[in-house]
Amino acid sequence: VQLVESGGGLVQAGGSLRLSCAALGGVFKINLMGWYRQAPGKQRELVASIATTGSINYAEAVKGRFTIIRDNAWNTVYLQMDSLKPEDTAVYSCNANITLAQGSNYYWGQGTQVTVSS
């Protein structure tokens, strides 16, 4: 299983970006997908997550500005980021808990850079 991300880039403060994360390869069941970010010199933090139960969590810093969305096939998750701030600058990584025939595990994408200029 691979998590393939896209959509990062450079944007001015107040702008928007949409990240996508697609789970590819094999037969699997996705239990949870989420986005994390890590800024230089800081610890990685959860940005948003969505479970198959419908439960959604957002970090306080992004509530009201970011929206996590999944497609109906549950293979792709998007992170719609609006009203971006310079402090949102970080490497954003997709994470998923996936069940294969041999059991469940967490998988990570390669990360995508988001830079917000002031």
Report, as a whole number of angstroms, the end-to-end distance: 37 Å
The portion of residues assigned to helices is under 10%
The outline comes out as elongated
Radius of gyration: 14 Å
Major beta-sheet overview: 7 strands, mixed
Mean pLDDT reading: 94
SS field, number of helical segments: 0
Quick one: how many beta strands? 11
Q: Provide the low-confidence segments as ranges.
A: none
Secondary-structure-derived class: mainly beta
H/E topology pattern: EEEEEEEEEEE
Note the beta-strand portion.
over 45%
Task: List the main descriptive attributes of the protein structure presented here.
single chain; 118 residues; mainly beta; 4-stranded antiparallel sheet; elongated
Question: How are the elements arranged and paired?
Answer:
Elements: E1 2-6, E2 9-12, E3 17-24, E4 29-38, E5 45-51, E6 56-58, E7 66-70, E8 76-81, E9 90-100, E10 103-108, E11 112-117
Parallel strand pairs: 2-11
Antiparallel strand pairs: 1-3, 3-8, 4-5, 4-9, 5-6, 7-8, 9-10, 9-11
Describe the structure.
- By secondary structure, the chain is mostly beta strands.
- It is 0% helix and 60% strand.
- The chain contains no helices and eleven strands.
- The chain has strands at 2-6, 9-12, 17-24, 29-38, 45-51, 56-58, 66-70, 76-81, 90-100, 103-108, 112-117.
- The strands form two sheets. Strands 2, 4, 5, 6, 9, 10 and 11 form a seven-stranded mixed sheet that branches.
- It is elongated.
- The mean pLDDT is 94.
